[in-house]
């Protein structure tokens, strides 16, 4: 009788891998973010990446970051991956679920995460940790009892022929 294979990916690699795969759909030239929401029983409930709302053309809206006029920058228009993952969910409740996300959530997404009942965040990168948005985000997540944990990179590389 043959044994089961042993080099299968872990739950964490699976869910963070899906978050990274989602981020690859982003049209943002500077930062691509992906999120994956998982039930307490390890079922994937939803995914999202940072992008424009439906009907707002990727080719017509701006992708700038540093224009003086904020209307000419992307920030007023892009929906963050975390909010998209929450909004993409078409099932019942996200109460008690976990979110895997490639970049630490901002204050706006933290509010949505808290209000959706998500109780744990696993994040890969925290490159904006010293910004007010992330400081405020952590303040709210702490107050609401949402646990956040840094993803531990396993070193595994996955190549997929598409
Ligand atoms: N947690 C996050 N999730 C996201 O989806 N984003 C998105 C918004 C922008 O489209 C992009 C950040 O652009 P930049 O400032 O690094 O050029 O990533 C940003 C953050 C940061 O808080
Ligand atoms: Zn956000």
Question: What does it look like?
Answer:
The structure is a single chain. The chain has 4 helices and 5 strands, in the order αββαβαβαβ. It has 162 residues and is α/β, with parallel strands linked by helices. The protein has a single domain, classed as Cytidine Deaminase, domain 2 (3-Layer(aba) Sandwich), CATH 3.40.140. Strands 2-1-3-4-5 form a 5-stranded mixed β-sheet. Helix 3 packs parallel to helix 4 (132-144). The mean pLDDT is 98. Bound molecules: 2'-deoxy-5-(hydroxymethyl)cytidine 5'-(dihydrogen phosphate) (5HC) and zinc ion. One of its GO terms (cellular component) is cytoplasm. Zn(2+) binds at residues 80, 106, 109.
- Radius of gyration in whole Å, from Cα? 17 Å
CATH architecture: 3-Layer(aba) Sandwich
Given the C-alpha coordinates, what overall shape results? globular
Per CATH, the class reads Alpha Beta
Number of domains: 1
Q: Order of SSEs, N→C?
A: HEEHEHEHE
Number of discrete helical segments: 4
Bound molecules: 2'-deoxy-5-(hydroxymethyl)cytidine 5'-(dihydrogen phosphate), zinc ion
Percent helix: 25-40%
Q: What would CATH call the homologous superfamily?
A: Cytidine Deaminase, domain 2
Our measurement of the CA-to-CA distance between the termini, rounded to an integer number of angstroms, reads: 33 Å
Number of extended strands: 5
Alpha-beta classification: alpha/beta
Average pLDDT over all residues: 98
CATH topology (level 3) name: Cytidine Deaminase, domain 2
Strand content: 15-25%
Sheet with most strands: strand arrangement: 2-1-3-4-5
Low-confidence stretches: none
Major sheet details: 5 strands, mixed
């Amino acid at each position: 009788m043959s044994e089961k294979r042993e080099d299968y990916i872990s739950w964490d690699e699976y869910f963070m891998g899906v978050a990274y795969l989602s981020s690859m759909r982003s049209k943002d030239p500077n930062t691509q973010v992906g999120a994956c929401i998982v039930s307490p029983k390890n079922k994937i409930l939803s995914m999202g990446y940072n992008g424009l709302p439906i009907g707002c053309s990727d080719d017509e809206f701006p992708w700038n970051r540093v224009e003086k006029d904020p209307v000419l920058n992307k920030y007023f228009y892009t929906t963050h991956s975390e909010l998209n993952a929450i909004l993409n969910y078409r099932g019942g409740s996200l109460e008690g679920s976990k979110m895997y996300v490639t970049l630490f959530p901002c204050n706006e997404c933290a509010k949505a995460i808290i209000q959706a009942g998500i109780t744990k965040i696993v994040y890969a990168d925290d490159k904006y940790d010293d910004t007010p948005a992330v400081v405020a985000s952590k303040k709210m997540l702490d107050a609401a009892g949402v646990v956040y944990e840094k993803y531990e990179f396993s070193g595994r590389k996955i190549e997929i022929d598409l």
